[in-house]
Structure formats: C-alpha cells, structure tokens
Amino acid sequence: MIRTGCPSHNCGGRCLLRVYLKDGVITRIDGDDRPDTIEAPQLRPCPRGRAYRRRQYHPDRLRYPLKRTGRRGEGKFERISWDEALDLVASELSRVKEKYGNSALFVPYGTGSYNQINGRQTATRLLHLFGGCLGFYNSYSWACITPATLTVYGTTTTGNQRQDWLNSRYILMWSWNPAEMRDGTNSDYFVKLARERGAKVVCLDPRLTPSAIALADEWIPIRPGTDAAMMSALAYVMITENLYDADFIRTHSVGFDETQMPPGFEAEETYKDYILGRRDGVPKTPGWAENICGVPAETIARIAREYATTKPAMLYLGYGLQRRAYGEQVVRAACVLAALTGNIGVHGGWASGLGNQAPDGGPFWLVFPVGENPVKASIPSFLWTEAIIRGREMGPEDGVVGVPKLDNNIKLLYVVASNCLINQHANTNRTARILSDESLVEFIVVHEQFMTPTARFADVVLPACTQFETWGLEDGWKYGDEVILMPKILEPLPETKSDYTICAEVAKRLGFGEKYTEGRDEKQWLEWMLDVYRQTRFPDLPSLDEWLEKNLGVWARPVTDPAVAFEDFRRDPEKYPLPTPSGKIEIFSARLHGLGKPAEIPAVPKYIQEWESPFGEEARKYPLQAIGHHYLARVHSTHHNNDWLREAFPQRVFINPVDAEERGIKTGQMVKVFNERGALILPCRVTLKIRPGVVAIPQGAWWEPDERGLDRGGNINVLTSERWSPYAFGNTQHTIMVQVEKYEEK
Ligand SMILES: Nc1nc2c(c(=O)[nH]1)N[C@H]1C(S)=C(S)[C@@H](COP(=O)(O)OP(=O)(O)OC[C@H]3O[C@@H](n4cnc5c(=O)[nH]c(N)nc54)[C@H](O)[C@@H]3O)O[C@H]1N2
Ligand SMILES: Nc1nc2c(c(=O)[nH]1)N[C@H]1C(S)=C(S)[C@@H](COP(=O)(O)OP(=O)(O)OC[C@H]3O[C@@H](n4cnc5c(=O)[nH]c(N)nc54)[C@H](O)[C@@H]3O)O[C@H]1N2
Ligand code: SF4
Ligand SMILES: [Mo]
C-alpha cells in the first residue's frame, strides 16, 4: 500500500489515496487513514479518486506519438516514432518563430495537471527559454470574481481559514455547491460542522444541488443571472429598516452615501442613491426584485433581516453566478452586503469575494520555475480565438496588456493538459471552424493521455504518462495547509513520457536542453521544490527520504488558531489600510468610473439584464436558460470515459416537469437542445430539482458531432457563447438561452 495524492487534475480538491498494488498493478484504491481532527482533517477522496483505476487502465490510453494524415480535426492519424515527433515539433517551433516571431506562439489555458512538474507549466518554461510566447492572464474559473474582488478590497485574500466557519451562526451558500463541486477538500465538511453547532444554512441556486440537500435548512431556487437584483433588494431592506452596520460602513468604506464619496466624485450616484432609486426612479425593493429573480418579496425581506441580524454570518459565493454576462456586478454586490452587515474582519464572518485563505492566500501557487517571459504581450485567457483571427487588431479594448497592440496573430499552439481548444472553450462549432483553417493556426501540438476532442485537432499528438507513472507534488486549492507527495508508483505505459520529459527533449533539440533541465529529472526537481516549500512556508517539511520511508503521503500543518482576513484593518483602518486607492472598502470605485462605461461597468454594483435573458427578445425563440454545472462524475472533461462514473452519473439534460410536460417529454427520452450556435441530442431527466425555465447540462462531456453536426456527446459548449464580460474579459459560459424539443431518430 502506498499513500499518494489523487492525480492532480483541476477538480477543486486535493485528497490522499491509499493505493494497493500487486505485481505492479493497482488492485484497489482507498481513502485517507490518518487520524482525523478538526485542526487537520483527513483528505477524504470523492468517487472520482476512488474510481481512478478505470482511467489508469483504460484501453483507450494513447500509446505512441501520432501525426495527422487527414484534414485537421477529421481524426485521421498515423503512428510515428518519438524521434520523428520531437524533431517535427522542434522544427515547427523554429519555423514559426523565424517567420512571425515569438509572439505568434501560445500555450493555451489548460488545467489537466496541477502536479507542479507536469502540465502546461512545462511548456511555458520551454517557450520562455525559447525567447517567449504570447502570455495570458486570468482564468476560466474565476474570471470575474478575481478582478471584481480586487476592485473592492485590493486583494483576493479575503477568506477566513475554514476552521473559523464553526463560529458562524448563519451561512448563505450563494451559487455554491461544495458537496458536488469540490472547492477545497473538506469545505462541505466544515459547513456540516458549523451547522451541527447551530448555524442556519440557506442555499441559493436554481438547482436543488447535493449541497442544498445535504447541508442546507432552506433552498431558494433563484432565477439564474438575477442574483444582483436580489442582493440589491437585501440592501434595500437593511437600509430602510436600519439594520445595517452604519458605524462600520462610515469608518471602513467609501461610496456608500454622499457623506463619503471620493474627492472629485461628490456629485456622482452613490450606492444608497442606486438602492433607493434616487436617480433612476426605481427603488430596489423586494417587490421589484421578485419580478426579476423569481423569489417572493417576503422571502427576500426575511433573508435580509436574518442575514443582517444573525451575527456572525457568512455570504459565501460560488463561481457559477460569476461565469456569466455581468459576473463582475454580482461579486461586487455581495462584497457590499458583507460590509453592510459588518461581517468583515470578525470570527465567524466572511468578507464575500474570492476568499483565498488568510493570512497569505494559502498555498496554491506554482513553485516549478517557468521563468520570465521575454514577450511582454498578454491577453485575457478567454480571448485566444480572437487572437487567432484578429490578433494584430487587438489592443487594450480587448484586454491586451504589456503592449499597446499585439504584433501577431497566434500561429502555433502548444497544448498541454488541456481540452480547452475544443471542448471546454465556448461555442465549439465556431472554435472547430477556426482551428480547421490551416492558414490561421499553422501548427498544433498536444500532449494528452486520451484522444480528446482537442487532441483530434492536433497535427502531432504526444502521449503523456499519468500521474501515477511519474513524480509529483501538490498543495491546496484555495484552502488547506498541506503538501501532498505523489511518488512514481507505476512504470509508464511503454512509449509514454511525462510532460516534463517531453519538453526537456524538445528543448534539447532546440539547443537549450541543459538550461531547461538544470541537470534535474522529475524526482530531483521534486526535492528542489520541497526545499522551496521548506524555506518559504513550511520549515518542518520532512525530507523526501523520510517521506518515502514512512509512506507519509501528506504533510499537514494543523490549524489551531484560524486566521481571519482583514482583522487588522477592522481594528484600525488608518494604521492597516487596504491596498485599494482609498485604503477602504470601495463600494464606489473611482477607477471603474474612470473607464467611462456606466451602462456595463457602473462605479457602484448594479443589476444589469443579461444579453441572453428570459426578459429579452431572444426568449421568444429560445425560452429556457441553460446552465453547465460542474459535475460529480468528472473533472471538467477528465473522466468522461470512466465507465464506473458514467454509469453512476450519466450525461443528461435536467428539466423541470412544467417545462417537460409542455413539450411532451418524459424521463429517459432523447431530446434536442439547441440555439443558433448549435444543437445536441441527449437523454433527459425530468426532475423537481431544478426550477422551471432552467435546464442543466453538466459541463465537460466530450463533443461527438454526427455527420449533420449534431453533438451526440452532450457537450454544452456547443450552445455557449464566446462573448466576454465587459470588465474582466471573462468567459460567460453560463449565460445562454436554449430551446428543448422531443427528438426522434429519422
Ligand atoms: N465535481 C467537480 N468539482 C469541481 C470541478 C469539476 O469539474 N467537477 N471543477 C473545479 C473547478 S476548476 C472550478 S473553477 C469550480 C467551479 O465551481 P462553480 O463555478 O461554483 O461551479 P458551477 O457548477 O459552475 O456553479 C455552482 C452552482 O451555481 C449554480 N448557478 C449557475 N448560475 C447561477 C446563477 O446565476 N445564480 C445562482 N445563484 N446560481 C447559479 C449552478 O447551478 C451550480 O450549482 O469547481 C471545481 N470543482
Ligand atoms: N460550459 C462550460 N465550460 C466550461 C466551464 C463551465 O462551467 N461551463 N468551466 C470552465 C473551467 S472553470 C475550467 S477550469 C475549464 C477546464 O478545462 P480544461 O483545463 O481543459 O480541463 P479538462 O477538461 O479536465 O481537460 C484536461 C485534459 O488534461 C488531460 N490530462 C490530465 N492529466 C494530464 C497530464 O498529466 N498531462 C497531460 N499532458 N494531460 C493530462 C486530461 O486527459 C484532459 O483531457 O473548463 C471551462 N469550461
Ligand atoms: S476531490 Fe479531486 S483530488 Fe479529491 S479524490 Fe476527488 S478527484 Fe481526487
Ligand atoms: Mo475552473
């Protein structure tokens, strides 16, 4: 039996597995068996970790390098040798660099491996040493919540350590589903403990999620995309009933009312003006909000009173509500509520926002050195298809930073541990059209373990080994004080290599092999990184030898005195100002005001109707909102082909009986879900666990277009839009309208 980290895909968790081996073959996988305490809880795996054998020994694992023979995307390949493959990759890198320059090279977003020594960072290091590549910033995960949180607090380290949740009396789980969507291993467990200690838990989600069922006292099925309206009405009740913490607001924030506007902005609309409707003539009453978000006015008023008077309280944001059209607004609106209720900087409270763990943002950073990028240009992570078709036209209005304008279109994609090229990016049919055009991107190399929809679009596919077949190291996801070792426990499948080894081989062919490896293999890098952790964060970290000898798996630092974010600032805001322009919580942002786009980027948080909405013209043709939630069965698209998980959690569209009946649809029948961007055919599940007017198709299923272009795999991105949010340039993949109808095979 060997203790190791669960292969570190981007699942939101970090867990310990006990792997049982017989004659070099995994016979069983079990969970953490270390002592379990609140200070250092066990890292208990989910069904995906437990079912990993089916992925590890899947017959479809890629076994040798492949070169495309048909049209790009057609899926025709021939087997080639490693030498030929690596020579080809190196020569294409050199050719494209020679012809266009380094800024035409790009390593797209991809989160398949968080093993420090594998995944996309190995390619980033390669291209940085090769003279650089177009960079990106921001993520598909937290595109709006990260920059929006920064506008309010100047930092994303806004979260108390989770042991402190036990001090909370009231928890609003807003679009947050930690019992299914892992958000740090054990987050659901800490909510459960808080509830056992008397906290009331309310879940606001259009779906009756596993979290609502397992953890909540009340479920509020809110209409998607309208949370900022309900939040505004909560503020209305708190203000008009004098339930808010006026002292805290006065001393710790700017922009709440006319008494505290930043200099030069005294005449601008304050937050209170907006809530009371002083300028737009629309008071944001519970009645007003009811018509938008579909939550009864009396429920809104009650939640406002509960949240304002039950102390301390937490309004915890998930990320589903910000992967949307105006995702920036809802995040800022929630931050303001945390301030209004005075829950910032106190035990059991919560400064709503991204919530990286206090005191220092937690672990969760990259130790493997990718080095400086000599190319200074960087784009928002979501806008890479734009940079393929019109890079040279892109400047600050498209979120380009580092240079006034891009000097290239993207011409070469180096893809590692990513299914974002096709499956996970928005508007799959559009992306497929762009990538099929070989005059746009001239070369695509993909490191993969399976022939994913993305790998199908590669010119060369290089077979990567799995996590069990190489060395690795990982730490927490937003939370946790653990370092997890992932020793090599299996021999790689013949002819597969780690991402690190592949990149090192390419570097050698490009003439800087030594510089790339610094003489280290994976295991030696791991020792090097343990040293870094030891010097910067965990002085007591054991040596690699001790770790292996004792079969430790994980090293944890118990949290006995949980940190509270903004404690100092709360005590003395003058001495410990926030890193915002005013040093205070910015309810009104002078910087956002300066962008001069008040309709889409207002200086105080507002509800704005989404561009695809049940209230718009588009609803006539496509009356249903569709959500692609993060599914228990998969890590995005990873585990799509895991038969155990698929049997337990089949891919279906979830629809309310009201909407199903109207369409004559019954559970198990095939339906067509479509809009102007595409159509998919999949079975449906009629259920009361979703509010009427909304359907859900779990994101991540592999795209499988039939000969007519209808997707048979159930990939919601066939329906999603490439349009980005106005301030963060973020993905808005949850904001879509669709129609559903019964489907019969012709
Ligand atoms: N099992 C599993 N866990 C995961 C992942 C996974 O693939 N599988 N992926 C991980 C990663 S990388 C990330 S970034 C996170 C993502 O975490 P999230 O972005 O939080 O996950 P989602 O499922 O998209 O959304 C959370 C909930 O929000 C609801 N929702 C959607 N739109 C709205 C809305 O407008 N208003 C409200 N109130 N609710 C809404 C959805 O129904 C869903 O239940 O999950 C992580 N955890
Ligand atoms: N509609 C919709 N789309 C979404 C989302 C949504 O909520 N709705 N969520 C978005 C979010 S938050 C995210 S983070 C992205 C995630 O999108 P991706 O980052 O593309 O994640 P995966 O789909 O898991 O794809 C990772 C790939 O890496 C491969 N892989 C695993 N381990 C290794 C390894 O060690 N080496 C190599 N070379 N390959 C490996 C896996 O086989 C898999 O194909 O999806 C985004 N897309
Ligand atoms: S939550 Fe993530 S790390 Fe934990 S067992 Fe599941 S897949 Fe593995
Ligand atoms: Mo994500």
Label this structure with key terms:
Rossmann fold; binds molybdenum atom; globular; 28% helix; 6-stranded mixed barrel; Barwin-like endoglucanases; 3 domains; 746 residues; alpha/beta; binds iron/sulfur cluster; 25 helices; 26 strands; binds ligand MGD; Dimethylsulfoxide Reductase, domain 2
Describe the structure.
The chain is globular and about 75 Å long. α8 crosses α12. The chain folds into three domains: 207 residues, Rossmann fold; 233 residues, 3-Layer(aba) Sandwich (Dimethylsulfoxide Reductase, domain 2); 126 residues, Barwin-like endoglucanases (Beta Barrel). The protein is an alpha/beta fold. The relative contact order is 0.17. The protein starts with a strand and ends with a strand. The protein has 25 helices and 26 strands. The mean pLDDT is 97. A six-stranded mixed sheet has the order 5-4-16-15-14-6. A six-stranded mixed beta barrel has the order 21-25-22-24-23-26. It binds ligand MGD (2 copies), iron/sulfur cluster and molybdenum atom. The site of one ligand MGD has 37 residues, from α15 and β15.
CATH architectural group of the largest domain: 3-Layer(aba) Sandwich
The global form is: globular
- In the CATH scheme, the class of the largest domain would be Alpha Beta
Strand content: 15-25%
Runs in which pLDDT lies below 50 for 5 or more consecutive residues are none
Structural class: alpha/beta
What is the average of the pLDDT values?
Answer: 97
Task: Give the names of the bound compounds.
Answer: ligand MGD, iron/sulfur cluster, molybdenum atom
- End-to-end gap: 53 Å
Number of strands: 26
Radius of gyration: 25 Å
Tally of alpha and pi helices: 25
| CATH homologous superfamily identity of the largest domain | Dimethylsulfoxide Reductase, domain 2
In spatial order, strands of the major sheet run 5-4-16-15-14-6
CATH topology of the largest domain: Dimethylsulfoxide Reductase, domain 2
Fraction of residues in helices? 25-40%
Q: Sheet with the most strands?
A: 6 strands, mixed
* Structural domains: how many: 3
